[in-house]
Amino acid sequence: MDHQTELFEQIQQTGQGHILRFREELSESSGERLVSQIKTVDWTLLAKLIKEYVKSPGPAVADRKLEPTEVITLPGTALGKKRAAEARQAGEAALRNGKVACLLVAGGQASRLGYDGPKGAFKVGPVSGKSLFQLYAERILFLNRRYNIQIPWYIMTSETNDAQTRDIFAQNQFFGLPEDKVDFFEQMMIPAVDFNGRVLMRAKDTIFMNPAGNGVCILALKKSGILNTMKEQGIEHIFYFQVDNVLANIADPVFIGYHILDETDVSTKVVAKRYPEEKLGIVGKVNGKFGIIEYTELSEEQMYAREIGGSLRFGFGTIGIYVFKRDFLEKVNEDFNLPFHLARKPIPCLDESGQEIYPARPARPARPARPTEPNGIKFETFIFDVLPQARKASAVEVLREEEYLPLKNKEGENSPATVRRGMISLHASWLEAAGIKVPRDENGQVEGVVEISPAFAPDRESFVEKVDKSLAFEERLYIK
Ligand code: UTP
Fold first, then answer.
1. How many Å apart are CA 179 and CA 195, to the nearest integer?
2. Which of 122, 192, 251, 301 has the greatest number of beta carbons closer than 10 A?
Protein backbone atom coordinates (compact mmCIF):
# COMPACT_ATOMS: atom_id res chain seq x y z
CA MET A 1 0.00 0.00 0.00
CA ASP A 2 1.45 3.41 -0.87
CA HIS A 3 1.81 6.12 1.75
CA GLN A 4 -1.23 8.08 0.60
CA THR A 5 -3.56 5.07 0.64
CA GLU A 6 -2.28 4.17 4.08
CA LEU A 7 -2.91 7.69 5.28
CA PHE A 8 -6.46 7.71 3.90
CA GLU A 9 -7.12 4.43 5.60
CA GLN A 10 -5.90 5.79 8.90
CA ILE A 11 -8.22 8.77 8.45
CA GLN A 12 -11.19 6.47 7.74
CA GLN A 13 -10.35 4.32 10.74
CA THR A 14 -10.18 7.29 13.09
CA GLY A 15 -13.66 8.37 12.01
CA GLN A 16 -12.54 11.36 9.92
CA GLY A 17 -13.33 9.93 6.49
CA HIS A 18 -15.77 12.77 5.83
CA ILE A 19 -12.88 15.16 5.09
CA LEU A 20 -12.34 13.23 1.85
CA ARG A 21 -15.96 13.39 0.76
CA PHE A 22 -15.56 16.24 -1.72
CA ARG A 23 -12.43 14.85 -3.36
CA GLU A 24 -14.18 13.73 -6.52
CA GLU A 25 -15.46 17.27 -7.13
CA LEU A 26 -12.10 18.97 -6.63
CA SER A 27 -9.81 20.16 -9.40
CA GLU A 28 -6.40 18.54 -9.56
CA SER A 29 -4.67 21.40 -7.77
CA SER A 30 -7.35 21.63 -5.04
CA GLY A 31 -7.10 17.89 -4.50
CA GLU A 32 -3.35 18.18 -4.14
CA ARG A 33 -3.76 21.03 -1.69
CA LEU A 34 -6.04 18.93 0.48
CA VAL A 35 -3.71 15.97 0.43
CA SER A 36 -0.68 18.06 1.29
CA GLN A 37 -2.57 19.61 4.23
CA ILE A 38 -3.67 16.15 5.39
CA LYS A 39 -0.05 15.08 5.38
CA THR A 40 0.90 17.81 7.85
CA VAL A 41 -1.54 16.51 10.48
CA ASP A 42 -0.56 14.13 13.25
CA TRP A 43 -3.68 11.91 12.99
CA THR A 44 -2.63 9.61 15.80
CA LEU A 45 -2.29 12.55 18.19
CA LEU A 46 -5.61 14.00 17.06
CA ALA A 47 -7.42 10.67 17.61
CA LYS A 48 -5.92 10.51 21.10
CA LEU A 49 -7.04 14.05 21.93
CA ILE A 50 -10.57 13.40 20.73
CA LYS A 51 -10.78 10.20 22.74
CA GLU A 52 -9.34 11.74 25.91
CA TYR A 53 -10.84 15.21 25.88
CA VAL A 54 -13.89 15.33 23.61
CA LYS A 55 -15.45 11.93 24.10
CA SER A 56 -14.63 11.82 27.80
CA PRO A 57 -14.43 14.70 30.28
CA GLY A 58 -10.62 14.97 30.24
CA PRO A 59 -8.24 14.68 33.15
CA ALA A 60 -9.82 15.80 36.43
CA VAL A 61 -8.45 18.93 38.07
CA ALA A 62 -10.46 18.60 41.27
CA ASP A 63 -8.08 16.33 43.10
CA ARG A 64 -5.16 18.62 42.39
CA LYS A 65 -3.45 19.82 45.53
CA LEU A 66 -2.45 23.46 45.35
CA GLU A 67 -0.08 25.13 47.82
CA PRO A 68 1.77 28.44 47.75
CA THR A 69 5.32 28.48 46.46
CA GLU A 70 8.28 30.68 47.25
CA VAL A 71 8.82 33.75 45.10
CA ILE A 72 11.99 35.84 44.80
CA THR A 73 10.34 39.12 45.71
CA LEU A 74 11.52 42.64 44.85
CA PRO A 75 14.72 43.32 46.77
CA GLY A 76 13.71 45.31 49.87
CA THR A 77 16.45 44.43 52.33
CA ALA A 78 20.21 44.94 52.12
CA LEU A 79 20.59 41.20 51.71
CA GLY A 80 18.01 41.14 48.91
CA LYS A 81 19.83 43.97 47.13
CA LYS A 82 23.15 42.20 47.44
CA ARG A 83 21.62 39.06 45.95
CA ALA A 84 20.08 41.06 43.08
CA ALA A 85 23.47 42.65 42.38
CA GLU A 86 25.08 39.21 42.29
CA ALA A 87 22.34 38.02 39.96
CA ARG A 88 22.94 41.00 37.66
CA GLN A 89 26.62 40.16 37.49
CA ALA A 90 25.94 36.52 36.64
CA GLY A 91 23.35 37.48 34.00
CA GLU A 92 25.60 40.10 32.43
CA ALA A 93 28.48 37.64 32.23
CA ALA A 94 26.22 35.13 30.44
CA LEU A 95 25.11 37.81 27.98
CA ARG A 96 28.66 39.00 27.32
CA ASN A 97 29.83 35.45 26.76
CA GLY A 98 27.12 34.84 24.17
CA LYS A 99 25.28 32.23 26.21
CA VAL A 100 21.80 33.74 25.84
CA ALA A 101 19.34 33.59 22.93
CA CYS A 102 15.92 35.25 22.73
CA LEU A 103 12.77 33.44 21.69
CA LEU A 104 9.62 35.31 20.73
CA VAL A 105 6.43 33.33 20.27
CA ALA A 106 4.28 35.09 17.71
CA GLY A 107 2.27 32.33 16.10
CA GLY A 108 -1.08 33.30 17.65
CA GLN A 109 -3.98 34.70 15.66
CA ALA A 110 -4.63 37.81 17.76
CA SER A 111 -8.35 37.24 17.38
CA ARG A 112 -9.28 39.40 20.36
CA LEU A 113 -7.37 42.35 18.93
CA GLY A 114 -9.04 41.74 15.57
CA TYR A 115 -6.06 42.95 13.57
CA ASP A 116 -5.43 41.88 9.97
CA GLY A 117 -1.79 40.93 10.21
CA PRO A 118 0.74 39.63 12.68
CA LYS A 119 0.14 41.19 16.10
CA GLY A 120 3.80 42.23 16.23
CA ALA A 121 3.17 44.61 13.32
CA PHE A 122 0.58 46.52 15.32
CA LYS A 123 1.74 50.10 15.82
CA VAL A 124 1.70 51.10 19.47
CA GLY A 125 4.35 53.80 20.00
CA PRO A 126 2.35 56.82 21.27
CA VAL A 127 4.66 59.32 19.54
CA SER A 128 6.75 57.24 17.14
CA GLY A 129 3.97 54.95 15.90
CA LYS A 130 6.50 52.11 16.05
CA SER A 131 5.29 48.52 15.98
CA LEU A 132 5.72 45.93 18.71
CA PHE A 133 8.31 44.12 16.55
CA GLN A 134 10.33 47.30 16.20
CA LEU A 135 10.21 48.10 19.91
CA TYR A 136 11.48 44.60 20.73
CA ALA A 137 14.20 44.89 18.09
CA GLU A 138 15.30 48.19 19.66
CA ARG A 139 15.62 46.53 23.06
CA ILE A 140 17.89 43.92 21.54
CA LEU A 141 19.88 46.65 19.76
CA PHE A 142 20.47 48.30 23.12
CA LEU A 143 21.73 45.05 24.64
CA ASN A 144 23.95 44.34 21.63
CA ARG A 145 25.63 47.71 22.08
CA ARG A 146 25.85 47.58 25.85
CA TYR A 147 27.41 44.12 26.00
CA ASN A 148 29.19 44.22 22.67
CA ILE A 149 27.40 41.14 21.41
CA GLN A 150 24.91 40.03 18.76
CA ILE A 151 22.11 38.21 20.53
CA PRO A 152 20.40 35.61 18.34
CA TRP A 153 16.66 36.21 18.11
CA TYR A 154 14.35 33.35 17.15
CA ILE A 155 10.78 34.16 16.21
CA MET A 156 8.09 31.52 16.13
CA THR A 157 5.36 32.14 13.57
CA SER A 158 2.54 29.96 12.29
CA GLU A 159 1.18 29.26 8.84
CA THR A 160 -1.32 32.06 9.49
CA ASN A 161 1.35 34.78 9.63
CA ASP A 162 4.76 33.39 8.68
CA ALA A 163 5.14 34.99 5.26
CA GLN A 164 3.83 38.35 6.47
CA THR A 165 6.14 38.35 9.48
CA ARG A 166 9.21 37.60 7.39
CA ASP A 167 8.21 40.32 4.89
CA ILE A 168 7.82 42.92 7.61
CA PHE A 169 11.31 42.27 8.92
CA ALA A 170 12.82 42.24 5.44
CA GLN A 171 11.04 45.45 4.38
CA ASN A 172 12.31 47.19 7.52
CA GLN A 173 15.91 45.99 7.19
CA PHE A 174 15.44 43.92 10.32
CA PHE A 175 14.97 47.15 12.27
CA GLY A 176 18.73 47.65 12.37
CA LEU A 177 19.59 44.20 13.74
CA PRO A 178 22.11 41.96 11.97
CA GLU A 179 20.00 39.96 9.53
CA ASP A 180 21.81 36.71 10.20
CA LYS A 181 20.95 36.96 13.88
CA VAL A 182 17.18 36.95 13.34
CA ASP A 183 15.62 33.63 12.43
CA PHE A 184 12.01 32.51 11.94
CA PHE A 185 10.48 29.09 12.39
CA GLU A 186 6.95 27.80 12.03
CA GLN A 187 4.93 26.08 14.70
CA MET A 188 2.57 23.19 14.31
CA MET A 189 -1.12 23.60 13.42
CA ILE A 190 -3.88 21.26 14.53
CA PRO A 191 -7.39 20.59 13.14
CA ALA A 192 -10.41 21.89 15.02
CA VAL A 193 -13.33 19.51 15.60
CA ASP A 194 -17.05 19.76 16.28
CA PHE A 195 -18.54 18.68 19.61
CA ASN A 196 -18.66 15.08 18.38
CA GLY A 197 -14.98 15.07 17.51
CA ARG A 198 -15.41 15.38 13.74
CA VAL A 199 -12.79 17.50 11.98
CA LEU A 200 -14.26 20.74 10.58
CA MET A 201 -13.71 21.79 6.98
CA ARG A 202 -13.07 25.42 6.13
CA ALA A 203 -13.62 24.69 2.42
CA LYS A 204 -13.95 21.57 0.30
CA ASP A 205 -10.19 21.44 -0.12
CA THR A 206 -9.20 22.79 3.29
CA ILE A 207 -9.41 21.46 6.83
CA PHE A 208 -9.91 24.13 9.49
CA MET A 209 -6.67 24.25 11.46
CA ASN A 210 -5.49 26.55 14.22
CA PRO A 211 -2.01 27.14 15.67
CA ALA A 212 -1.53 24.51 18.38
CA GLY A 213 -0.72 26.96 21.19
CA ASN A 214 2.53 28.49 22.40
CA GLY A 215 3.55 25.27 24.20
CA VAL A 216 4.51 23.66 20.92
CA CYS A 217 7.41 26.10 20.57
CA ILE A 218 9.46 23.48 22.42
CA LEU A 219 8.69 20.92 19.73
CA ALA A 220 9.15 23.39 16.90
CA LEU A 221 12.55 24.49 18.22
CA LYS A 222 13.67 20.90 17.96
CA LYS A 223 12.07 20.12 14.59
CA SER A 224 13.49 23.23 12.97
CA GLY A 225 16.98 22.26 14.09
CA ILE A 226 17.31 25.45 16.12
CA LEU A 227 17.95 23.67 19.42
CA ASN A 228 20.92 21.97 17.78
CA THR A 229 22.20 25.20 16.28
CA MET A 230 21.96 26.81 19.71
CA LYS A 231 24.02 24.01 21.20
CA GLU A 232 26.68 24.38 18.51
CA GLN A 233 26.82 28.10 19.19
CA GLY A 234 27.25 27.67 22.93
CA ILE A 235 23.80 29.01 23.87
CA GLU A 236 22.83 27.79 27.33
CA HIS A 237 19.85 29.93 28.26
CA ILE A 238 16.76 30.78 26.23
CA PHE A 239 14.85 33.93 27.13
CA TYR A 240 11.19 33.43 26.15
CA PHE A 241 8.71 36.27 25.67
CA GLN A 242 5.33 36.82 24.00
CA VAL A 243 4.42 39.23 21.27
CA ASP A 244 1.90 41.25 23.23
CA ASN A 245 3.83 42.70 26.17
CA VAL A 246 5.28 45.99 24.97
CA LEU A 247 7.34 46.36 28.17
CA ALA A 248 8.89 42.87 28.08
CA ASN A 249 12.28 43.45 29.64
CA ILE A 250 14.07 41.31 27.10
CA ALA A 251 17.06 39.28 28.32
CA ASP A 252 16.92 41.03 31.69
CA PRO A 253 20.32 40.20 33.24
CA VAL A 254 19.01 40.11 36.82
CA PHE A 255 16.31 37.59 35.95
CA ILE A 256 18.73 35.46 33.95
CA GLY A 257 21.24 35.77 36.79
CA TYR A 258 18.88 34.37 39.45
CA HIS A 259 18.18 31.46 37.13
CA ILE A 260 21.91 30.81 36.74
CA LEU A 261 22.79 31.19 40.43
CA ASP A 262 19.88 29.02 41.56
CA GLU A 263 20.55 26.50 38.81
CA THR A 264 16.91 26.32 37.80
CA ASP A 265 15.73 24.57 34.64
CA VAL A 266 13.20 27.35 34.19
CA SER A 267 12.29 30.63 35.88
CA THR A 268 9.29 32.83 35.29
CA LYS A 269 8.56 36.49 36.00
CA VAL A 270 5.57 37.31 38.16
CA VAL A 271 3.81 40.44 39.41
CA ALA A 272 1.78 40.93 42.58
CA LYS A 273 -1.92 40.52 41.81
CA ARG A 274 -3.90 43.73 42.19
CA TYR A 275 -7.09 42.02 43.38
CA PRO A 276 -8.14 38.40 43.93
CA GLU A 277 -10.22 38.05 40.74
CA GLU A 278 -7.53 39.46 38.48
CA LYS A 279 -7.18 37.42 35.28
CA LEU A 280 -3.61 36.22 35.70
CA GLY A 281 -2.36 32.66 35.97
CA ILE A 282 -0.92 32.25 39.46
CA VAL A 283 2.23 30.42 40.54
CA GLY A 284 2.02 27.70 43.15
CA LYS A 285 2.95 24.16 44.00
CA VAL A 286 0.69 21.73 42.21
CA ASN A 287 0.82 18.26 43.73
CA GLY A 288 4.17 19.24 45.18
CA LYS A 289 5.64 20.61 41.93
CA PHE A 290 6.16 24.18 40.81
CA GLY A 291 3.46 25.18 38.36
CA ILE A 292 1.06 27.80 37.03
CA ILE A 293 -2.69 27.59 37.40
CA GLU A 294 -5.00 29.54 35.12
CA TYR A 295 -7.31 31.95 36.91
CA THR A 296 -10.28 30.03 35.51
CA GLU A 297 -9.13 26.94 37.34
CA LEU A 298 -8.85 28.48 40.82
CA SER A 299 -11.65 27.58 43.20
CA GLU A 300 -13.34 30.49 44.91
CA GLU A 301 -11.71 29.50 48.17
CA GLN A 302 -8.25 29.51 46.57
CA MET A 303 -8.88 32.82 44.85
CA TYR A 304 -9.74 34.69 48.05
CA ALA A 305 -7.50 32.79 50.51
CA ARG A 306 -5.21 35.02 52.59
CA GLU A 307 -2.15 34.43 54.71
CA ILE A 308 -2.16 35.44 58.39
CA GLY A 309 -0.46 38.73 57.50
CA GLY A 310 -3.29 39.57 55.06
CA SER A 311 -1.55 39.00 51.75
CA LEU A 312 -3.18 36.79 49.12
CA ARG A 313 -2.19 33.16 49.50
CA PHE A 314 -1.91 32.87 45.72
CA GLY A 315 -0.94 36.46 45.10
CA PHE A 316 1.59 36.30 42.27
CA GLY A 317 0.56 36.11 38.61
CA THR A 318 2.74 35.16 35.67
CA ILE A 319 3.44 37.65 32.87
CA GLY A 320 4.42 35.08 30.25
CA ILE A 321 8.17 35.55 30.49
CA TYR A 322 10.51 32.64 31.08
CA VAL A 323 14.13 31.70 30.91
CA PHE A 324 14.81 28.07 30.05
CA LYS A 325 17.99 26.09 30.18
CA ARG A 326 18.58 24.85 26.66
CA ASP A 327 19.34 21.35 27.85
CA PHE A 328 16.07 21.26 29.78
CA LEU A 329 14.15 21.86 26.55
CA GLU A 330 16.16 19.11 24.91
CA LYS A 331 15.10 16.76 27.67
CA VAL A 332 11.44 17.74 27.35
CA ASN A 333 11.66 16.91 23.63
CA GLU A 334 12.74 13.35 24.35
CA ASP A 335 9.10 12.62 25.10
CA PHE A 336 7.07 15.74 24.33
CA ASN A 337 3.85 15.27 26.26
CA LEU A 338 2.41 18.67 27.13
CA PRO A 339 -1.32 18.42 27.81
CA PHE A 340 -3.80 20.08 25.46
CA HIS A 341 -6.46 22.54 26.55
CA LEU A 342 -9.83 22.90 24.83
CA ALA A 343 -11.32 26.18 23.71
CA ARG A 344 -14.92 26.18 22.51
CA LYS A 345 -15.08 28.80 19.75
CA PRO A 346 -17.24 29.92 16.87
CA ILE A 347 -15.58 28.39 13.80
CA PRO A 348 -16.54 29.12 10.20
CA CYS A 349 -16.97 25.78 8.41
CA LEU A 350 -18.94 23.69 5.90
CA ASP A 351 -22.04 21.69 6.71
CA GLU A 352 -22.56 18.07 5.65
CA SER A 353 -23.56 19.04 2.13
CA GLY A 354 -20.62 21.35 1.66
CA GLN A 355 -22.51 24.62 2.14
CA GLU A 356 -20.77 27.36 4.10
CA ILE A 357 -22.67 27.60 7.34
CA TYR A 358 -21.40 31.12 7.72
CA PRO A 359 -21.13 32.93 4.40
CA ALA A 360 -18.26 35.37 4.02
CA ARG A 361 -19.08 38.97 4.81
CA PRO A 362 -19.35 40.84 1.53
CA ALA A 363 -17.36 43.86 2.69
CA ARG A 364 -14.26 41.85 3.54
CA PRO A 365 -14.29 38.77 1.34
CA ALA A 366 -10.70 37.88 2.19
CA ARG A 367 -11.52 37.34 5.84
CA PRO A 368 -13.38 34.30 7.09
CA ALA A 369 -16.73 35.20 8.56
CA ARG A 370 -17.26 34.28 12.17
CA PRO A 371 -20.27 32.49 13.53
CA THR A 372 -21.28 34.02 16.83
CA GLU A 373 -21.93 30.93 18.97
CA PRO A 374 -19.30 28.28 19.66
CA ASN A 375 -19.74 25.34 17.29
CA GLY A 376 -16.35 23.73 17.55
CA ILE A 377 -13.32 22.97 19.65
CA LYS A 378 -9.79 24.22 19.20
CA PHE A 379 -6.90 22.36 20.84
CA GLU A 380 -4.06 24.36 22.32
CA THR A 381 -0.94 23.77 24.40
CA PHE A 382 0.35 26.27 26.96
CA ILE A 383 4.01 26.84 27.63
CA PHE A 384 3.53 26.91 31.40
CA ASP A 385 2.49 23.25 31.40
CA VAL A 386 6.15 22.36 31.03
CA LEU A 387 6.99 23.71 34.49
CA PRO A 388 6.20 20.53 36.47
CA GLN A 389 8.81 18.73 34.37
CA ALA A 390 11.54 20.98 35.69
CA ARG A 391 13.96 19.54 38.22
CA LYS A 392 14.03 23.02 39.75
CA ALA A 393 11.98 26.11 38.88
CA SER A 394 11.47 29.54 40.39
CA ALA A 395 9.44 32.74 40.17
CA VAL A 396 10.93 36.23 40.25
CA GLU A 397 8.81 39.25 41.11
CA VAL A 398 9.10 42.38 38.99
CA LEU A 399 7.32 45.73 39.02
CA ARG A 400 4.22 45.61 36.90
CA GLU A 401 4.33 49.29 35.89
CA GLU A 402 7.85 48.83 34.52
CA GLU A 403 7.53 45.44 32.85
CA TYR A 404 3.98 44.44 32.00
CA LEU A 405 1.68 46.20 29.59
CA PRO A 406 -0.11 43.66 27.43
CA LEU A 407 -1.99 44.26 24.21
CA LYS A 408 -4.83 41.74 24.02
CA ASN A 409 -8.15 43.41 23.16
CA LYS A 410 -9.51 45.85 20.65
CA GLU A 411 -11.15 47.96 23.33
CA GLY A 412 -11.33 48.27 27.10
CA GLU A 413 -8.58 46.83 29.26
CA ASN A 414 -5.31 45.73 27.64
CA SER A 415 -6.19 47.56 24.44
CA PRO A 416 -4.15 49.90 22.20
CA ALA A 417 -5.47 52.88 24.19
CA THR A 418 -4.40 51.51 27.60
CA VAL A 419 -1.04 50.43 26.22
CA ARG A 420 -0.28 53.90 24.80
CA ARG A 421 -1.42 55.58 28.00
CA GLY A 422 0.67 53.16 30.06
CA MET A 423 3.77 53.90 27.97
CA ILE A 424 3.28 57.65 28.30
CA SER A 425 2.81 57.48 32.04
CA LEU A 426 5.82 55.18 32.54
CA HIS A 427 8.14 57.25 30.38
CA ALA A 428 6.95 60.47 32.03
CA SER A 429 7.88 58.96 35.40
CA TRP A 430 11.37 58.18 34.05
CA LEU A 431 11.75 61.83 33.04
CA GLU A 432 10.77 62.87 36.57
CA ALA A 433 13.22 60.37 38.04
CA ALA A 434 15.90 62.20 36.05
CA GLY A 435 14.71 65.54 37.44
CA ILE A 436 12.95 66.68 34.24
CA LYS A 437 9.65 68.43 34.78
CA VAL A 438 6.51 66.81 33.41
CA PRO A 439 3.36 68.91 32.95
CA ARG A 440 0.42 67.25 34.68
CA ASP A 441 -3.24 68.20 35.06
CA GLU A 442 -5.10 68.46 38.37
CA ASN A 443 -5.67 64.66 38.37
CA GLY A 444 -2.01 63.98 37.95
CA GLN A 445 -2.42 62.90 34.30
CA VAL A 446 0.47 63.72 31.98
CA GLU A 447 -0.35 66.64 29.70
CA GLY A 448 1.09 65.75 26.31
CA VAL A 449 2.75 62.68 24.82
CA VAL A 450 6.18 61.31 25.55
CA GLU A 451 7.98 58.20 24.42
CA ILE A 452 11.48 56.87 24.93
CA SER A 453 12.97 54.53 22.37
CA PRO A 454 14.24 51.29 23.94
CA ALA A 455 17.33 51.69 21.77
CA PHE A 456 18.11 54.81 23.84
CA ALA A 457 17.23 53.20 27.18
CA PRO A 458 15.02 50.17 27.82
CA ASP A 459 14.66 50.74 31.56
CA ARG A 460 14.48 53.48 34.18
CA GLU A 461 18.00 53.03 35.47
CA SER A 462 19.75 53.23 32.12
CA PHE A 463 17.54 56.17 31.16
CA VAL A 464 18.38 58.23 34.23
CA GLU A 465 22.06 57.48 33.74
CA LYS A 466 22.09 58.52 30.11
CA VAL A 467 19.57 61.32 29.58
CA ASP A 468 20.51 64.99 29.19
CA LYS A 469 18.98 66.44 32.38
CA SER A 470 18.51 69.86 30.82
CA LEU A 471 15.87 68.50 28.42
CA ALA A 472 12.45 70.17 28.43
CA PHE A 473 9.13 68.39 27.89
CA GLU A 474 6.25 70.39 26.47
CA GLU A 475 3.35 68.62 24.80
CA ARG A 476 5.38 66.20 22.70
CA LEU A 477 8.70 64.51 23.20
CA TYR A 478 10.41 61.56 21.58
CA ILE A 479 13.77 60.48 22.91
CA LYS A 480 15.83 58.20 20.68
P1 UTP B 1 -2.59 34.58 23.34
O2 UTP B 1 -3.44 33.40 23.43
O3 UTP B 1 -2.73 35.68 24.29
O4 UTP B 1 -2.58 35.26 21.92
O5 UTP B 1 -1.10 34.04 23.27
P6 UTP B 1 -3.36 35.03 20.60
O7 UTP B 1 -3.69 33.58 20.39
O8 UTP B 1 -2.55 35.68 19.53
O9 UTP B 1 -4.64 35.92 20.84
P10 UTP B 1 -6.18 35.60 20.84
O11 UTP B 1 -6.41 34.67 21.99
O12 UTP B 1 -6.45 34.96 19.49
O13 UTP B 1 -6.80 36.94 20.98
C14 UTP B 1 -0.01 34.55 23.99
C15 UTP B 1 1.24 34.45 23.13
O16 UTP B 1 1.40 33.16 22.60
C17 UTP B 1 1.54 33.24 21.20
C18 UTP B 1 0.87 34.52 20.80
O19 UTP B 1 1.35 34.95 19.53
C20 UTP B 1 1.26 35.41 21.93
O21 UTP B 1 2.58 35.89 21.79
N22 UTP B 1 0.93 32.06 20.58
C23 UTP B 1 -0.34 31.72 20.87
C24 UTP B 1 1.67 31.32 19.69
O25 UTP B 1 2.85 31.64 19.40
N26 UTP B 1 1.10 30.24 19.12
C27 UTP B 1 -0.17 29.86 19.38
O28 UTP B 1 -0.63 28.84 18.82
C29 UTP B 1 -0.91 30.62 20.29
1. 45
2. 251
